[in-house]
Amino acid sequence: MNDASIRRLLRGIDGLLPESPTFRVLAGQRVSGKFYGATITSALQTLRDPLSGEVLAHEALARSYSATGTGLSPWGLFADASSDEHLIALDRLCRTVHALNFRVSGLSEAGGKLVLNVHERLLHAVLAGHGAFFRRVLGLIDVSPARIVIDVPLLRSSEVCWLKGVVESYRRAGFEVAVEAASAVQAKLFATLVRPDWIRLRSALVAAETVAELHSLGSRVVATRVETALAHSHSVAAGVDLVQGFHYDTPSEVF
Questions:
Q1: Helix ranges restricted to H, 27-128
Q2: Coil, helix or strand for 211?
Q3: Phi then psi for 66, rounded to 5 degrees?
């Protein structure tokens, strides 16, 4: 997209978030958004086919900077959110910026998916209709919800019934859903009772038996934190569907 096209796109969405009324085009056709004193933009890390190395998806991670150029932790911003309303606004802003960057970079036309994290506090603060607001955002920028995977953070096994409702809500809005699991046992519990599209497990936790069982329950398996050639070989042998980690690349603001 050229600069004029990007600016028309931004005018269509500008003001959708009252707490963050301005989006900007940065050098290299990246989009940023303002949240109080911080500028927030995107870094992307690939998720790859473990055998061919083909890029099948990108996970978007927030990067934020102060007016002086000093790097700020996005999670610090989340921790400092003074109310659920502020946190919801920040979380929505991050996902909107990521979706805009997915669109203006041309990645939305390349066939892969965009993985977007949601904050646990947002999941609890929004009582119903998870995904409805973001579906509206995507409609304004011509990105299909089917191209988006909502990544639910690591939760307690005792929250499985509530999590099932959250996953179903996002699915009704047209999104795929990934769930983080802390162990093979938890992964099997989530796959059985929640039935997410993707389950994300650290590479050290994947095993062929576990992956086969998760596949039989309808979930794709992502091996995360693949940092070494040995971890890559282990993940390939286990039969996972996607791999992600520093062995392949680091999150980049150049895309």
A1: 74-80, 84-104, 120-125
A2: helix
A3: -85, 175
Q: Is 44 exposed, middle or buried (0-12, 13-18, 19+ CB in 10 A)?
A: buried
Place of tokens 């989009």: 31
CA nearest 205: which of 230, 179, 234?
Answer: 234
Does 3.20.20.450 match the CATH number of domain 3-243? Answer: yes
Q: pLDDT tens, 122-175?
A: 777 776 778 888 998 898 888 999 999 999 987 777 788 888 988 999 999 999
Of how many residues is the chain composed?
Answer: 255
Report the SS3 class of residue 238.
helix
Each residue's pLDDT tens digit, 68-77:
655 555 556 6
Amino acid letter for position 227: E
The lowest-confidence range among 22-31, 112-121, 161-170 is 22-31
Look up residue 44 and give its two tokens. Answer: 């992307």
**Counts for the chain of helices (H) and strands (E), in that order:** 9, 11
